[in-house]
Write a structure and sequence with these properties.
Layout lengths: L4 E2 L1 H8 L6 E3 L5 E3 L3 H4 L3 H4 L5 E2 L3 E5 L33 E5 L9 H7 L4 E6 L1 H17 L4 E8 L2 E8 L4 E7 L5 E5 L2 E5 L6 H4 L4 E4 L16 E3 L4 E2 L4 H19 L6 E5 L37 H11 L6 E3 L2 H5 L25 H14 L5
Parallel strand pairs: 7-10, 7-13, 12-14, 13-16, 16-17
Antiparallel strand pairs: 1-4, 2-3, 5-6, 8-9, 9-10, 11-12, 14-15
Helix pairs in contact: 4-5, 5-10, 7-8
Length: 378
């Protein structure tokens, strides 16, 4: 499977059934079906382009967005519920991601639920995975606001949430694992084990796995949930965190290669999402955070370089022989300096790391949907 690019020709065959009608959902949000002339690549263009990188493009304003009314979604964490906590400017909701050489299909929640009837969709990672998880729940709830059940439980000391859309028997799961590799309590204290993944027995029960990790690797002092690192050769008090991340990611890659049944389970890695605490990165010197940012960076290029872990993830996936798709959200999130909660959240803290829901994570799920329904990925 390609890492971010796929043939758009077979994909169109499955998407030409969409119509250009407009109707209003029960929650008040308008749903506009994709217009073939504007949403999908024209056949004349396909003669010139036989492939499309969905992750290269720019943000454009689209009055048919957002795709749901976040006030009607019961699944948003207080950290991400920007409108509830008073964000005055809501222009950030009206942008659509436009790839350079094709168009991204609008998320179709009912189609998603039908395709994955009786299946398990599992996010594994930190709070940025939770961002994505909350967004997908809202998108599905807007499309099929029927009976759901929510189960909270602890597995291997990890907090987990499972939401089941009962009419379709679709389970959407958030499995919290900040490092992907294990942390175990031993006589010397809490040990981060860079070569151990015991939670994998639970993960591989899912039909779709979306992994994410990086945000916690740089934490130090009382903010880190471990006391020592077992790097395979020795147990140390600390080590270079980028090297530790790379080692942990290699362990994850080996697990995916050897333990996942790829005829049953589709695997994605959600790339590093950008934070916006330094205005110099997007050309506004003197700006210290994302507060009062109301528009994306124009164009397709972000002035600052890619985060180091983004390159590490890409290199790790290139070496893999089994199909793993990179959900390459790094650049498109870099461009969205306006998409963070800033002070408009339920924790009374400046947050330019996470994302408002609805908002940018809805596009992450549009991309996930596009990759899942493409015949090239089946």
């Amino acid at each position: 499977m390609g890492k971010g690019a796929y043939s758009i020709v077979p994909f169109l065959a499955g998407m030409l059934m969409v119509c250009s009608c407009v109707h209003t959902e029960a929650n008040g949000a308008k749903k506009v079906s994709a217009d073939i002339g504007t949403r999908l690549t024209m056949m004349s263009e396909l003669k010139k382009k036989d492939s499309c990188n969905l992750f290269e493009g720019e943000w454009v304003m689209d009055k048919s967005y957002p795709m749901y009314n976040s006030s009607a979604c019961p699944f948003i964490r207080k950290e991400f519920d920007c409108i509830k906590y008073g964000r005055p400017n809501q222009q950030y909701l009206t942008y659509r991601w436009q790839p350079k050489h094709c168009n991204l299909p609008r998320f179709d929640g009912k189609d998603f639920l039908e395709r994955f009837k009786g299946k398990k969709i599992m996010f594994v990672g930190d709070s940025l995975s939770s961002n994505n998880f909350n967004s997908l729940l809202c998108l599905l709830n807007a499309a099929a606001p029927g009976k759901t059940t929510t189960e909270l439980k602890t597995i291997n000391s990890r907090g987990n949430t499972t939401v089941t859309f009962q009419d379709y028997r679709v389970e959407v799961i958030m499995f919290t694992s900040q490092y992907l590799v294990d942390i175990e309590n031993e006589s010397i204290g809490r040990v981060l084990k860079l070569e151990s993944i015991k939670d994998g027995e639970i993960w591989k029960q899912a039909d779709v796995l979306i992994f994410n990790s990086w945000q916690w690797w740089g934490r130090t002092g009382t903010k880190q949930p471990w006391d020592f690192i077992d790097n395979g050769d020795e147990i140390v008090k600390d080590m270079d965190r980028v090297a530790a991340f790379q080692a942990g990611l290699n362990t994850w890659a080996k697990w995916v290669e050897t333990q996942v049944d790829h005829t049953k389970t589709k695997v994605f890695f959600q790339a590093v999402a950008a934070a916006h605490y330094h205005g110099t990165e997007w050309g506004e010197s003197g700006v210290e955070n994302c507060l009062d940012q109301t528009t994306p960076v124009e164009g397709s290029t972000y002035p600052a370089e890619l985060p180091v872990p983004a390159s590490i993830v890409k290199e790790a996936l290139k070496k893999m022989t089994k199909p793993v798709e990179l959900l390459d959200i790094t650049v498109l999130s870099q461009l969205r300096k306006d998409g963070h909660p800033s002070k408009y959240n339920g924790v009374n803290a400046m947050d330019c790391t996470h994302w408002c829901v609805g908002g940018v994570p809805d596009t992450w799920n549009q991309l996930l949907y596009a990759l899942l329904v493409s015949p090239a990925t089946e």
